[in-house]
Amino acid sequence: MVYFFKLQTLILIFSLFSCSNIADNKTAEDYIKEGIENTKNQKYDEAIFSYKKAIEKDPKNALAHHALAGIYTFKDKNERAIEEHKKAIELDPTYPDPHYGLGFVYKKLGRKEEAKKEYLLFEKLKKIEENKSTETDTIDL
Fold it and tell me: Can you give the residue range of the structural domain that contains 135?
């Protein structure tokens, strides 16, 4: 009887570790997709969890930081949103979207000059991005 109980306990422990390893096989991109779905379904706390898991998997993923900032903005957690937008910009200074998001939060907080600066950076980076896209399209022809 004791042997049977020990065997069941070992099987249970093994099963728990196996299940946790399945979740660990997700990539940052998987968690970002999950966060996007949660956001679309208005499950904002679940989206925050997903984006944080993405960041845990890949701390240098600017998109994950930017997406998390967007949810924080929506939930009026403005200081956290600013931190996450700034982190996304630090990780990828050429990524335009966090500049727009940061500008939006600044404008929301009445910080007009900082908002204007971020919006201008967004416009500048977006044009550079579009020009690169046009050059690539021309080369492909």
Answer: 27-140
- First-last CA distance in the chain: 75
Q: What pLDDT tens digit does each residue of the chain (141 aa) get?
A: 554 445 454 454 544 444 444 556 999 999 999 999 999 999 999 999 999 999 999 999 999 999 999 999 999 999 999 999 999 999 999 999 999 999 999 999 999 999 999 999 999 999 998 888 776 555 444
For residue 46, being part of any structural domain is answered with yes
**Whole-model pTM over 0.70:** yes
Distance CA 11, CA 14 (A): 5
Handedness of CA 130, 95, 34, 30 (dihedral sign): positive
Residue 118, domain member (yes or no) = yes
Residue 6: inside a domain: no
Name the CA dihedral angle for 44, 50, 52, 56, rounded to a multiple of 10 degrees.
180
Which tokens sit at 58?
């890949």
